[in-house]
Design goal:
Length: about 200
């Protein structure tokens, strides 16, 4: 079924982990020091900028090596702080070029306007709520601030051996589709899934 997309707009730019790196973060094996502590799992990207401008100068699809610097958590949220240590991209001759200079890495990720001044982080997991207060990945900013302020209830673990994750520069976009397209998709899914699925669940 074809659905007409009217327009798309950028939701956020980021570094999106590959499958192997996501599996490292979300592996619940007791030997994994970064295994999810809480039921709501994330562990898939570093957000660089929300609602970036259309003229963002970012090397899309570049491979980024991320060093895990710290593992920080409290009673409701868990994250890792990461640093980009190299960026690999293809030049006009399709040759692989790897850069490791910190200033050049910032430029390849879109420049100072696109790279956050605060530490880069990946939320691994959170609880669903805390005494009625909804908790999600946005709480990570608060957790980082509490760590920076020396809150004794925030735990920080560092690694004796370096751990590297891998991701790619990309942008997540939201799509606006033609009027009635969602109902068309719903009817199509219901038709394929049979009588047990009577409606599309959100």
């Amino acid at each position: 079924m074809k659905v007409k997309v009217i327009c798309t707009f950028p939701e956020y730019s980021g570094i999106f982990l590959n499958t192997r790196s996501k599996n490292i973060l979300l592996n619940r094996d007791p030997s994994n020091p970064l295994r999810p502590k809480y039921p709501k799992k994330y562990g898939h990207h570093v957000t660089l900028q929300f609602a970036p401008g259309q003229a963002i100068n970012m090397r899309f699809a570049s491979k980024v090596d991320l060093a895990v610097v710290k593992h920080i958590y409290d009673s409701v949220c868990q994250l890792i702080v990461v640093e980009p240590v190299s960026v690999t991209y293809r030049n006009l001759d399709s040759d692989a070029v790897t850069i490791t200079d910190p200033d050049e890495i910032v430029q390849s990720l879109g420049g100072v306007d696109n790279v956050p001044s605060t530490p880069m982080y990946i939320t691994i997991s959170t609880v669903y709520d805390n005494n009625g207060e909804k908790i999600n990945h946005e709480y990570s900013e608060e957790l980082l601030q509490r760590y920076s302020d020396g809150d004794p209830d925030v735990v920080c673990e560092e690694f004796d051996e370096p751990l590297t994750l891998y991701g790619f520069c990309a942008m997540r976009c939201e799509a606006i589709v033609e009027r009635g397209a969602i109902r068309k998709i719903e009817r199509d899914l219901n038709r394929r899934s049979g009588p047990r699925d009577t409606r599309l669940r959100e």
